[in-house]
Write a structure and sequence with these properties.
With 357 residues, the chain is α+β, with helices and mostly antiparallel strands. 29% of the residues lie in helices and 25% in strands. The protein is built from 8 helices and 15 strands. The strands form 4 sheets. The protein has a 4-stranded antiparallel sheet, covered by helices on one side. Strands 9-8-14-15 form a 4-stranded antiparallel sheet, covered by helices on one side. Helix 3 packs antiparallel against helix 4 and helix 6 packs antiparallel against helix 7. The relative contact order is 0.14. This is K Homology domain-containing protein. One of its GO terms (molecular function) is RNA binding.
């Protein structure tokens, strides 16, 4: 169904929003001005869920709610000469106090005469944060390491064959991923303070009971890395060459995790499925050996330095000779919330959170 007639529903905590993107700007996510409508059927649920968070003050004549918002978004909430803040207060019949920059208090304070008014303000602030977060370069990513001894050995074998093949030109050592950092990316996130990092780490733990256990039903999670493919239309001018990952259970699990994080405003996705792949060669590695690719599941952001100038490489002969290359099987035991531009003692990325399967 057309997305205008059936717009996307976005859940933030227990709140549900209908997100409407102006038609003439649908292909420009970094410039989109998000309009929203709160789902009417969820208003009563919101009030019930937030009941304990909203505190009565002034002998019960007023109510207040403290809400954490990363300080980066304070200026968007206040607006030019306080215009946005004033409009929000008028629309919701509330008073909003935003901490001063540098303050130890990281919570905005909402005061109103009714819980309904406070919830209305909170919903508006949630959407400002979601819209603002989408414009930031990502800082973390949900990852699964494909770094077993067998896979690393086969990857090094593949790399050696490519570099020593006289028929393959224009490929050098700097283009290859480090074997200790081979990974599948479920999705990328912009986490802007300690509260963001703590919250998403807890969300990752939630995925075991509500997503992973429901799929596996006590069985192991296994995957194969078999076959090569690329992310361009022309195999002679390629940015990324990757190994395909095969696992029905993993596909279902990664889809569920991505949808969960996306619905809560921490991740943007395109398409219905996470692309199961592990990058082997990346043209960005020439200048940045820690580049992480935003594939077709991720909206491109021209401000991201990892999306800068590329020098494409010719992968046509690699694909012809090694298209069915088998890098091995793996038993997946962990899912990481990984820090971008980091390196742990084992050579993989530092983890903000780890989910043990």
């Amino acid at each position: 169904m057309n997305s205008v007639l059936s717009p996307e529903l976005m859940w933030i905590g227990s709140r549900c929003y209908r997100v409407n993107i102006p038609n003439d700007r649908r292909n420009e996510p970094e410039r989109v001005n998000i309009n929203y409508e709160e789902e009417e059927f969820n208003c009563e649920l919101d009030a019930e869920d937030l009941y304990d968070e909203i505190e009565p003050i002034d002998n019960g004549t007023k109510f207040q709610l403290k809400m954490h918002i990363p300080s980066l978004f304070y200026s968007q909430i206040i607006g030019t000469k306080g215009a946005t803040k004033k409009r929000l207060e008028q629309e919701t019949s509330t008073q909003l106090t935003v901490p001063k920059m540098g303050s130890r208090d990281s919570n905005v304070l909402i005061i109103g005469k009714s819980r309904k008014d406070i919830i209305s303000m909170r919903n508006r602030l949630d959407l400002i944060v979601v819209s603002g977060r989408a414009k930031q370069n990502f800082t973390h990513f949900l990852s699964i390491a494909f770094t077993s001894s067998q896979i690393q050995e086969n990857f090094n074998k593949f790399k050696s064959q490519i570099l020593n093949d006289p028929e393959i030109n224009g490929i050098d050592d700097s283009l290859f991923q480090k074997p200790q950092k081979l990974h599948l990316t479920i999705g990328t996130l912009s986490l802007l303070d300690n509260e963001d990092r703590s919250r998403t780490a807890e969300m990752l733990q939630d995925c075991k009971e509500f997503i992973i256990d429901q799929v596996l039903q006590g069985s192991e999670l296994n995957a194969k890395m078999v076959g090569l493919d690329y992310m361009n239309d022309d195999p002679s001018a390629v940015d990324v060459l990757y190994a395909k990952v095969v696992s029905e259970n993993l596909q279902e699990i990664t889809n569920g995790i991505a949808e969960y994080f996306s619905s809560r405003g921490f991740m943007q996705l395109k398409g219905d499925q996470v692309k199961l792949h592990v990058t082997l060669i990346n043209s960005l590695f020439r200048d940045n050996d820690d580049a992480i690719v935003k594939d077709e599941n991720q909206p491109r952001d021209s401000r991201d330095k990892d999306q800068g100038n590329r020098i494409k490489f010719d992968a046509s002969k690699i694909l012809k000779k090694y298209k069915d290359f088998n890098l091995g099987e793996i038993k997946i035991k962990e899912i990481h919330l990984s820090q971008r531009y980091s390196k742990a003692s084992n050579g993989f990325y530092e983890a903000t959170g780890i989910l043990k399967l």
